[in-house]
Design goal:
mainly alpha, DUF8055 domain-containing protein, DUF8055
Length: 119
């Protein structure tokens, strides 16, 4: 595993933890939800895409993969909390990456995965 990816995964994970602590307790907060997608969820899924589609296919260790997928799910939890929704599931980063490649839109990916906000 590239040290570059490990550092980025750890940073995204730490930022997700901080984001959770700064959530507005009075949803909905669409502006904050979009910021969370731009600042965390999108970059987390993009990192996975970059590692898997770049010139060299990166193989994550089990702990790195769990941290990366966990960070993505933390960002989705924060996103949903902006709409007063508590997520009960765990989402696969591969599925998120495939949706991002298809849609090029982190908001669409988050809505398809979580159903939040309801359409």
């Amino acid at each position: 595993m590239s040290h570059q990816y490990d550092d980025r995964i750890r940073a995204l994970s730490r930022r997700a933890e901080s984001a959770r602590e700064s959530l507005d307790p009075d949803p909905p907060d669409d502006e904050r939800a979009m910021a969370l997608l731009r600042e965390g969820f999108g970059p987390t899924v993009a990192l996975y895409c970059e590692a898997r589609t770049g010139g060299t296919w990166v193989r994550f260790s089990e702990s790195e993969f769990e941290r990366l997928e966990g960070a993505m799910n933390d960002w989705l939890d924060c996103y949903a909390a902006c709409y007063g929704v508590e997520l009960a599931g765990s989402y696969a980063i591969r599925e998120a990456a495939e949706l991002l490649v298809d849609t090029h839109n982190a908001r669409d990916v988050a809505q398809v995965l979580t159903g939040v906000p309801e359409r």
